[in-house]
Design brief:
InterPro entries: Acyl_CoA_acyltransferase (IPR016181), GNAT_dom (IPR000182)
Shape: globular
CATH superfamily: Gcn5-related N-acetyltransferase (GNAT)
Keywords: Transferase
Number of helices: 5
CATH class: Alpha Beta
Pfam families: Acetyltransf_3
Helix content: 25-40%
GO molecular function, one term: acyltransferase activity, transferring groups other than amino-acyl groups
Strand order of the largest sheet: 1-2-3-4-5-6-8-7
Radius of gyration: 16 Å
Distance between the termini: 28 Å
Number of strands: 8
Protein name: N-acetyltransferase
């Protein structure tokens, strides 16, 4: 069972309970502020609570003891999740991400701590050569978090994402194992 404790948050394995709390943030919470920043250019199909739970609990692990996602908990409250998926297993390359749904936990270092713990866990628990993340140029907070933990901008695809009728650049950032080890 994975349980990674930080100063402000902990990363815990997904349970039916924590997934139901994430479901609230993804589909039931009225304001949906996180969706304005987390891939707002990707339509999210509505699924039932049961489908949501099944999908996440049935996800294959990245490696033995390394789940594809962990729930972020602050105190006893579920506030988001971290995740990863293989871009290319042959070259040991993962894509990663983080979402803090509860805006009361934005701009307080919770996301940075969670993402740092997740990246450290992935490098420590696997033979990863590189990992990365993708966002859009309007999500400046995510780019700053990635940069602060050591990622470098590797690609900028001009005007490739549309948000609220306006074009933004697609951003790819990444980190190599040797950079993480420093």
């Amino acid at each position: 069972m994975v349980d990674i404790k930080g100063r402000k948050i902990e990363l815990i394995e997904n349970t039916a309970e924590s997934l139901d709390e994430l479901y609230f943030w993804r589909f039931e919470e009225k304001q949906q502020e996180a969706k304005k920043w987390n891939g707002p250019y990707i339509p999210e199909e509505y699924i039932s609570k049961e489908q949501h739970r099944e999908k996440w609990l049935d996800d294959e692990a990245i490696a033995a003891g390394v789940p594809t996602s962990l729930t972020i908990r602050a105190g006893e409250k579920v506030i988001g999740y971290v995740g990863a998926y293989w871009v290319d297993e042959n070259t040991n390359w993962l894509e990663t991400g983080i979402v803090i749904y509860d805006k009361d936990y934005w701009n307080g270092g919770y996301g940075r701590e969670a993402y740092t713990l997740w990246i450290d866990f992935l490098f420590e628990s696997t033979d990863l050569h590189r990992l990365g993340m993708s966002t859009w140029s309007g999500n400046e907070r995510m780019m700053k978090v990635a940069e602060k933990i050591g990622m470098k901008e590797e690609a900028r695809i001009r005007k490739a994402r549309m948000v609220e009728g306006q074009y933004f650049d697609a951003i790819k950032m990444g980190m190599l194992r040797e950079e993480w080890e420093k």
